[in-house]
Amino acid sequence: MRERSTDFTGRLLNVVRETMVKRRAILELGQNRQTPFYLFDRKELDKSIKEFKFEFHKHVPNYQAYYAVKSNHYPGVLKEVVKNGLGLDVSSGRELQLALATKVKHIVFSGPGKTPAELKLAIKHRHKVLIQMDSFSELKRLGELLKKGETIRAGIRIHTKLHGSWRKFGIDLKELAKFWQLAKKYPRIKLEGIQCHMSLNETEKPYHDLIKILGKYLRYNFSKDELAEIKFIDLGGGFMPRLVDGYYPWDMPQGDVIKTAADFYNQNPNFTAKYYINKPATLKDYVETISWSIKRYLKPVVNCHYFFEPGRIISTKSMHLVMRVIDVKDEDMVILDGGINMAGWEYYQTNYYPVINLTRPALKEIKVLLQGTLCLPEDFWGYYCYAKKMKENDIIIIPNQGAYTYTWAQNFIKPIPPVINL
Ligand SMILES: Cc1ncc(COP(=O)(O)O)c(C=O)c1O
Known about the structure:
This protein is of the alpha/beta class and 422 residues long. It folds into 2 domains: 13-40 and 317-421, Lyase, Ornithine Decarboxylase, Chain A, domain 1 (Beta Barrel), CATH 2.40.37; 43-244 and 277-314, Alpha-Beta Barrel (TIM Barrel), CATH 3.20.20. Helices cover 32% and strands 22% of the residues. The protein has helices at 13-20, 23-32, 42-59, 75-83, 93-100, 116-124, 136-145, 176-182, 205-221, 224-229, 253-264, 283-298, 312-315; strands at 37-40, 63-68, 87-90, 107-109, 129-133, 152-159, 171-172, 189-195, 232-234, 246-247, 276-277, 305-308, 319-330, 333-336, 351-352, 356-357, 365-371, 380-386, 395-398, 419-421. The radius of gyration is 23 Å and the shape is elongated.
């Protein structure tokens, strides 16, 4: 649960309108096959990639992007990303195998606790793979695994005071100079850069602050020769898609307290806002700030490439969830034939996503509890639906569910549904 800085009430009619353009095609797919399914939207994915490339190319010309496979590893997604010239960012041996099955030219492998088998796989494909090491211990293990004649490119992941509870990743920035010197003991490891991913950056500020801290550290702790060894700085992902989702009032500490008390006394908490819409920075704002901060804090110190590892900003619009109404339980409650095992966790308790009845669409939401088929009350998609009415067999879509749902899916009670191409 986070304190939000971008509260914005309103409605996501933009999402409804974008989806309505595809209504006929989706209805045809939905009516003629078993629901639920993930709908792969290649055109939207392609648009997101192009937007990303356009902004970054304009403002950070010496950038390289590695799509974060963990956000959606569907082969159709990976193929499209690679076709558009992006590299892949993987975090396990399994993801590395998926990446190697594409035509990708460049892979970065990050993540804590890499196993010897995973490191060996990376070494085997060292002409494509750069390892983002995670600790002093991993430096030693990697160094010992490399045989005579084998060299591999590498970076070291760091965390700073800005990373908060994410300090399990990488080493403390304060130890970077020590790490850099120690790495010289392993000449088969070509240490070339620094990785410092931060997640869920609703504004551009965390990038500015991180770049400032890193620039200052390098200026005072690295020698001229060491600075010349830095070939890349990897600023990770964390860019949020805009105007696609929101959150309920109880996703904030004060709302959570009110809802918990109301639930305890079996009362209606009566919040003034139904939900708030997330309005993070625009891609342009993120990139302009990053570019400005690099010029101000890093360029005077180090001359290198900049890597990025975008995940959700690329994959969010690449998939939608399609289901049908299987049971109308009450005027204000229906059962959809998809369960939240499709999405892997209980996002929908606190996060708001627009849901549209494609069979009976409307530009206004009706109040209706949208439950799934799993044997859990938490199997729940939302409180509202853009619909005139809800009837059995109606085709329902939850648009823009491409990030961290397909990869989180579980076969709890129900199987993981198939992916259908739009
Ligand atoms: C190392 C690393 N890079 C990139 C990403 C992608 O983040 P996002 O999907 O928020 O862009 C993640 C996600 O947690 C990550 O752990």
